[in-house]
């Protein structure tokens, strides 16, 4: 039995843990939820998840408080969705409703971004950045702080009601509620000036919709993050089904490497001494105990697995203790796993024998395939990256080239034309001037073409050009009448151009207008 | 198909529904309890809803619901709210003249919007929804006015109507029939002259004697230069606008058997405010003076 010697000093505690979705559990028609008490994990991935949690929650809670000076005619909140006046502010960008395609473009990017991340590193969205995962993590921190780690929580849950249990439960749920209120509260700050809204919230002067929104989001945060947790991912979320369809044999998935772990043994030393074949897995159930979804990764790839990688941390800790190589549970591709599996089973002809993957010194043979990070750079990933980048560049160009002065013209259709007393013909147009910057501007409006025609605006003398002041960040609507004398009817064929121009910046927009004549004159 | 024995799928360990199609069985995966309870809750909500709100049809009517809600009452409330919201404007319009209203841009805007909606209900039948009129019904967009196009004059015309019996202030004019006074030839000559005033090609040989005929018979109302007179509501015959049709034949017809349009007096029906709003709306159409 040539095998890496087991570290004799190490003792690994075996945890009582059973996966909630084990195949041998006969299921009734309606299932009572089986409680999960995730154990605290420690390791690289846990560290990384703390960092992700800090960054994502930080962004969510703090963004509305960032100030951004836009002058006196626009709000100074960096990110603001102003529904009442239909404006969306994002730092230096201001979006009007008709520019909403920028948001659609961002959603397209988000979609392709998810495809990109999924094809490169598997269900990383689920495991690290999904709000459900992040908030559940946060709620678990609170739970652990009040009630202790897994075993203490299980004991508390099983214990009869006592003053201590009531105190702990009340404290836990109160803090969860407080987090819910903070979460709902942060949400509404995106829709109004945060400092003044907070002040009015505290003095109970805020609009009722603010309180209602906070109440609803408090409820969803509390219920999803505190009470339902993994049920949301397993039963409510469509994303696991979609993501599962996007994985291929080269995607990174959290994998139990049974080619080196099996046959698992709780008494590895004894079994090895008896000459039995033993794998690296000591069946300590640490991976099951830390799993927030309550599953056993050793059962293979499962829908419930959000690839949070906490089982990797737990198992690595055990392997360190035992003096074995890390990575009994690891990020691996299906193709690497299949190759190693084939090695351990002699091409599938024999049961798993981990000695086949090790040389005489107990080290892995050169045939064992390790994760090659270059697998990420495969055509599929590059294609997603390319599309994602293209959409991004397109949006950026669109953003830089977009108009901040827009002219919308609606030609009167009833009546299409008016014959004046002197035989000249008049057409009416409703002109909308969109001044899309938060500054007062003076705009010149003129007609080009149809040299005989004149233009009349209410309150202005007749002529071929006018200047008018437009309010900052507003639409100015006016009715103009264009009159063409009888002698110039031939010019009507070509129509005319209505030009709006900011004389100081030379920003302009042009509308090519038609001019209607009575049927007999055409 | 269904056998009494429960069938359990080997691979997943999950019971099947017992149905089988071409060897394919459907797994009967368990529902989470919370899902089932939520489903029951929606049923209870549905029952509660039909008790609270009008729902169940009976023989002659439907249940009214314990909350006493009705969409018709809601409409009345909404209308009352809208009226209350307009109260300050309505009050200011009542106490201002049409010229004062036009001088206040905000009030003018309100009056135009209100006038436009009153126009569609009361005026569009004759003048058209775009106020462009038709033969016999004046176009209100152009700058040719029988009785004057200032806001004050428009108000008067709308308030008292045209040839409306029973209103002392109504606009009245009547063109006599020339069928017996002028011969057929004279009628043609006069018509040729009138048509020639607007630069329309006509028979100069006919128009020449027509000039004297016009001076003798028509100028007293339509003026020496045929530009009409608002005092009598006599149309301008030297312009491009022909209320009763253009061309020599139409002019002859009008001389022989004059047609006279009638507009009701709107003040008694619509009230002072609405007539003001209508006058301001018509004034804003582009031809107002």
TrEMBL record, chain A:
Record keywords: 4Fe-4S, Electron transport, Iron, Iron-sulfur, Membrane, Metal-binding, Transmembrane, Transmembrane helix, Transport
UniProt key word Hydrolase: no
Source organism superkingdom: Bacteria
Coiled coil: none
TM region(s), chain numbering: 48-68, 88-117, 174-192, 208-227, 381-401
Annotated PROSITE patterns: 4FE4S_FER_1, 4FE4S_FER_2
Keyword Signal attributed: no
A Pfam family assignment: FixG_C
Name recorded for this polypeptide: Cytochrome c oxidase accessory protein FixG
Residue span, 4Fe-4S ferredoxin-type domain: 273-300
NCBIfam families listed in its UniProt record: ccoG_rdxA_fixG (TIGR02745)
TrEMBL record, chain B:
Gene3D superfamilies xref list: 6.10.280.130, Cytochrome c-like domain
Organism encoding this protein: Sinorhizobium kostiense
Subunit structure of this chain's protein: Component of the cbb3-type cytochrome c oxidase at least composed of FixN, FixO, FixQ and FixP.
Pathway per the UniProt entry: Energy metabolism; oxidative phosphorylation
Cofactor(s) required, per the database record: heme c
Protein name: Cbb3-type cytochrome c oxidase subunit
Spans through the membrane: 34-56
Function: C-type cytochrome. Part of the cbb3-type cytochrome c oxidase complex. FixP subunit is required for transferring electrons from donor cytochrome c via its heme groups to FixO subunit. From there, electrons are shuttled to the catalytic binuclear center of FixN subunit where oxygen reduction takes place. The complex also functions as a proton pump.
Keyword Oxidoreductase: yes
The keyword Transmembrane helix belongs to this UniProt entry's keyword annotation: yes
């Amino acid at each position: 039995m040539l095998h890496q010697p087991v570290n004799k000093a190490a003792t690994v505690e075996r945890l009582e843990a059973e996966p909630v979705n084990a195949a041998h559990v006969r299921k009734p028609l309606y299932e009572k939820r089986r409680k999960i008490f995730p154990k605290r994990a420690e390791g690289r991935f846990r560290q990384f998840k703390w960092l992700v949690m800090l960054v994502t929650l930080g962004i969510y809670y703090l963004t509305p408080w960032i100030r951004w000076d836009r002058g006196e005619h626009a709000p100074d909140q960096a990110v603001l969705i102003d529904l009442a006046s239909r404006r969306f502010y994002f730092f230096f960008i201001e979006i009007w409703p008709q520019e909403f395609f920028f948001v659609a473009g961002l959603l397209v990017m988000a979609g392709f971004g998810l495809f990109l991340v999924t094809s490169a590193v598997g269900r990383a969205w689920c495991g690290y950045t999904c709000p459900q995962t992040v908030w559940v993590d946060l709620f678990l921190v609170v739970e652990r702080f009040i009630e202790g780690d897994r075993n203490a929580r299980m004991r508390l849950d099983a214990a009869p009601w006592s003053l201590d249990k009531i105190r702990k439960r009340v404290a836990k749920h109160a803090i969860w509620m407080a987090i819910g209120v903070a979460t709902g509260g942060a949400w509404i700050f995106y829709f109004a000036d945060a400092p003044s809204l907070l002040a009015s919230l505290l003095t109970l002067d805020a609009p009722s919709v603010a309180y209602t929104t906070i109440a609803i989001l408090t409820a969803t945060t509390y219920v999803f993050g505190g009470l339902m947790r993994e049920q949301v991912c397993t039963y409510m979320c469509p994303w696991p089904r979609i993501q599962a369809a996007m994985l291929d044999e080269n995607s990174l998935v959290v994998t139990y490497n049974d080619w080196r772990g099996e046959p698992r043994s709780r008494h590895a030393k004894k079994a090895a001494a008896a000459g039995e074949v033993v794998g690296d897995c000591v069946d300590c159930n640490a991976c099951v105990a830390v799993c927030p979804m309550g599953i056993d990764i050793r059962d293979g790839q499962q829908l419930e697995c959000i690839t949070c990688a906490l089982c990797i941390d737990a198992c690595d800790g055990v392997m360190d203790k035992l003096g074995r190589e890390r990575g009994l549970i690891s990020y691996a591709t299906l193709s690497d796993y299949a190759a190693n599996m084939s090695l351990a089973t002699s091409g599938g002809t024999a049961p798993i024998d981990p000695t086949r993957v090790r040389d005489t010194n107990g080290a892995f043979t050169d045939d064992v395939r390790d994760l090659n990070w270059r697998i990420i750079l495969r055509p599929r990933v590059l294609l997603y990256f390319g599309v994602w980048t293209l959409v991004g560049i397109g949006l950026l160009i669109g953003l830089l080239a977009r108009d901040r002065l827009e002219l919308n013209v609606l030609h009167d259709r009833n009546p299409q034309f008016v014959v004046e007393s002197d035989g000249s013909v008049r057409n009416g147009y409703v002109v909308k001037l969109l001044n899309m910057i938060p500054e007062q501007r003076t705009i010149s409006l003129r007609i080009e073409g149809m040299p005989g025609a004149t233009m009349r605006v209410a309150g202005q003398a007749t002529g071929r050009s006018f200047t008018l002041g437009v309010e900052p960040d507003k639409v100015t609507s006016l009715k103009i009448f264009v009159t063409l004398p009888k002698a110039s009817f031939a010019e009507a064929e070509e129509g005319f151009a209505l030009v709006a121009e900011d004389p100081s910046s030379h920003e302009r927009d042009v509308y090519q207008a038609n001019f209607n004549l009575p049927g007999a004159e055409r | 198909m269904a056998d009494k024995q429960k069938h359990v799928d080997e691979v997943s360990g999950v019971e099947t529904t017992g149905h089988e199609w071409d060897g394919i069985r459907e797994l009967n995966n368990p529902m989470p309890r919370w899902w089932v309870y939520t489903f029951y809750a929606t049923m209870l909500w549905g029952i509660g809803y039909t008790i609270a709100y009008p729902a169940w049809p009976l023989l002659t009517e439907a249940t009214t619901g314990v909350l006493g809600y009705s969409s018709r009452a809601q409409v009345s409330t909404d209308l009352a709210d809208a009226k209350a919201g307009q109260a300050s404007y309505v009050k200011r319009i009542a106490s201002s003249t049409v010229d004062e209203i036009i001088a206040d841009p905000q009030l003018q805007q309100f009056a135009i919007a209100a006038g436009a909606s009153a126009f569609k209900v009361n005026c569009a039948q004759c003048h058209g929804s775009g106020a462009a009129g038709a033969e016999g019904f004046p176009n209100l967009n152009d700058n040719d006015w029988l009785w004057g196009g200032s806001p004050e004059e428009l108000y008067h015309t709308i308030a008292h109507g045209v040839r409306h019996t029973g209103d002392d202030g109504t606009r009245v004019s009547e063109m006599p029939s020339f069928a017996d006074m002028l011969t057929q030839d004279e009628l043609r000559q006069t018509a040729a002259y009138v048509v020639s005033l607007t630069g329309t090609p006509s028979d100069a040989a006919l128009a020449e004697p027509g000039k004297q005929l016009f001076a003798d018979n028509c100028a007293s109302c339509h003026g020496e230069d045929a530009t009409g007179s608002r005092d009598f509501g006599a149309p301008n015959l030297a312009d491009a606008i022909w209320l009763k049709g253009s061309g020599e034949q139409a002019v002859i017809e009008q001389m022989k058997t004059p047609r006279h349009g009638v507009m009701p007096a709107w003040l008694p029906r619509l009230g002072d405010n609405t007539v003001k709003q209508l006058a301001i709306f018509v004034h804003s159409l582009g031809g107002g003076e």
